[in-house]
Amino acid sequence: MAHEMTLYTYFRSSAAWRARIALNLKGLKPDYCFIHLLKDDQHSADYQHVNPQQLIPALVDDKHIIAQSLAIIEYLDETYPNPPLLPKDAAGRARVRQIAYAIACDIHPINNLRVLHYLRDEFQVTDEQRTQWQRHWIAKGFDAIEKLLAQSDKPGRYCHGNTPTLADICLIPQMGNARRVHVELTAFPTLLRIEETALAHPAFAAARPEVQPDAQ
Amino acid sequence: MAHEMTLYTYFRSSAAWRARIALNLKGLKPDYCFIHLLKDDQHSADYQHVNPQQLIPALVDDKHIIAQSLAIIEYLDETYPNPPLLPKDAAGRARVRQIAYAIACDIHPINNLRVLHYLRDEFQVTDEQRTQWQRHWIAKGFDAIEKLLAQSDKPGRYCHGNTPTLADICLIPQMGNARRVHVELTAFPTLLRIEETALAHPAFAAARPEVQPDAQ
Questions:
Q1: Which of A77, A86, B87, B153 registers the highest number of CB atoms within 10 A of its CB?
Q2: Does domain B90-204 correspond to CATH entry 1.20.1050.10?
Q3: Is A152 part of the contact surface with chain B (CB cutoff 8 Å)?
Q4: Tell me: the pLDDT tens digits for B43-57?
Q5: pLDDT digits 0-9 by tens, A64-83
């Protein structure tokens, strides 16, 4: 890179985890700026200037500031096209995006930290109930994705063929979240198989929360 | 269109509303198949075959079945490129997608019907508390988007320039949802201005819930 690139990240954020995988797959090595979500760094005046949504991640590439992990990944794929993170054909791209959004829209935001805090603070939901809530939305989403993948006429080592796409970039961090709240994963053999493949890939391995410099 | 196209839709679903706007903007006239969400049509065996997620909308274009509204819209934009729903430059596309995902990931799914049902059935949340929940996530999201748009160096009649993009396609249905739960909108003058512009556009006007054949 001729110019500066910075990723605002937090080791445990699964949206930041997605961005880290994509950057690793593209061979890009941005500076990391650590935003500690449990210390409320995301609400600082400085970070609000970067992302008014006060969510992680955000990418600064030269003069462009981009928040929302999927907007970052589509931007990276358009700007640094190799290796591609989406198939070439429109139907394939739609299939990959459908899987990605089934996770990024319909699982992850419902289980986000700020939502869990609202459940605790406004509805006095217990820790056990919150964990059930997280498991419920993950299992519901995974059930649909497992069916989509198992029925597919495009079997492969990854969600779509034999190379990683946006779908895998969303799936692997969500599998990590599922393990944290002890979702029973044996019902999702295809997802487990893809996770095993992906975690053997250096780009995915290096993006895991536990190997980040800010992990504690 | 030489081939068959079908949209599975429900008049009040704001995700289906997005797909209807995009189809109208492209001048496409698919058959509509109505899935009544309050009668649980989305859980029928037939519809599960179309979309294992049991969510609306889904598009069948020739032999391709695509669920997830944003996957449908990106597919339409790639397959029927005029008029474009995303800017030509990568930074502009990232900005439009960031706004779209701020709505489609971080507002809409948290307020989705199935989540509201869970709050009622599992946490015994009252109707008033559920409305407060909906207002909270809408206002939080709109606050960030209003800041993003107001600070922008790309002012225009729409979210990004003077023609509709994916961002407006997500914004207008979310404004409709905001009105349904009586969010105080005066704090969002830019969003109100864009809404007024968009609703004067025939493609947006014809996609409104109240003018759909299944509206009741």
A1: A86
A2: yes
A3: no
A4: 999 999 999 999 999
A5: 999 999 999 999 999 999 99
Cβ-defined contact of B75 to A52 (cutoff 8 Å): no
The whole-number pLDDT of residue A152 equals: 78
Contact of B166 with B19, CB cutoff 8 Å? no
Q: Do B71 and A90 touch (CB under 8 A)?
A: no
In the block, tokens 């937090």 appear at A10
CA distance B204 to B197: 10
CB contact under 8 A, A91 and B115: no
In which order are the strands placed within the sheet that holds A58-61?
Answer: A31-34, A5-9, A58-61, A64-67
Show Cβ contacts of residue B206 under 8 Å, excluding neighbours closer than 6 positions.
B20, B24
Reduced to 3 states (helix: H, G, I; strand: E, B; else coil), residue A195 is: helix
ipTM over 0.90: yes
Question: What are the residue boundaries of the structural domains of chain B, listed by start?
Answer: 5-83, 90-204
Token pair 């993006």 is found at A207
A143 inside 8 A of chain B by CB: yes
A56 CA: distance to closest CA in chain B (Å) = 12
Q: What is the pTM of this model?
A: 0.96
Question: Rounded to an integer, what distance in angstroms lies between the CA atom of residue A28 and that of residue A204?
Answer: 14
Specify the fold of B5-83: Glutaredoxin (3.40.30)
Contact criterion met (CB < 8 Å) for B122 and A133: yes
